[in-house]
Amino acid sequence: MRISDLVAEYIKNILDESNGTAEIQRNELANNIGCVPSQINYVISSRFTQENGYVVESRRGGGGYIRITRVHLTTEKGGIIMHVVNSVGETLDETSANFILENLISGNIIQKDTARIISAGISEKAFSQIPKELRNNVRSTVFKNMLLTQV
User: Fold this and answer.
1) The whole model's pTM is what?
2) How far apart are CA 124 and CA 63, in angstroms?
3) In this structure, are residues 96 and 84 in contact, taking their beta carbons and an 8 Å threshold?
4) pLDDT tens digit string along 46-61?
5) Whole-angstrom Cα distance, residue 105 to residue 69?
6) Burial 73-109 (b: 16+ CB within 10 A, else e)
């Protein structure tokens, strides 16, 4: 078994034992498994993605951690949102994002108030301090994360 498979299996076991949320320290996990910390980063960034049904948060520093949460799709609504998240690429312009939100509203998947908040959070005005060439990449990531809160 490859080291990346071992790391992924180890993290999945933690997720199973702790009701879908694992909080790990990268260096500690690397020592336990016997690999370098960069391998932990690789496995998390390639296998524990939004598209695979996980939300990853990290906090740097001495008391830093990586928190991985498995998203549970218990409703049709969750499946539709995950489909949208998976279909949005690496970039997303504001107009396309608002069309997606309108479709989700008309399908009774999200409420108008929720869509308004998401729209404000991904607007050009909200991203005015971000260089133009990065805005659509950031918008895509923010949009997907905001939608995942609705699952």
Assistant:
1) 0.59
2) 35
3) no
4) 888 876 778 888 887 7
5) 26
6) eeeebbebbbebbeebeeebebebbeebbeebeeeeb
